[in-house]
């Protein structure tokens, strides 16, 4: 059985398409420029206030861990219920 070169046109079309896709990928990489972002003063204040909250939370967590290890931590069901209710209210 003789195989003619009938599939070469498909192969050539595939290779052409792959070369075009690679060229597009190469161009998109080259054309990317850095983006400069300027934060407003409000967003900067929010950002810094979150850092302060994190510090307060870490101290609070450390105190709770200490109380648990000493066996003096008291869980108040009423406080938990109030917090859950506040969260549900929004």
UniProtKB/TrEMBL annotation:
Keywords: Bacterial flagellum biogenesis, Cell projection, Cilium, Flagellum, Repressor, Transcription, Transcription regulation. It comes from the Bacteria. Residues 36-85 form the Anti-sigma-28 factor FlgM C-terminal domain. The keyword Magnesium does not apply. The gene is flgM. This is Negative regulator of flagellin synthesis. Belongs to the FlgM family.
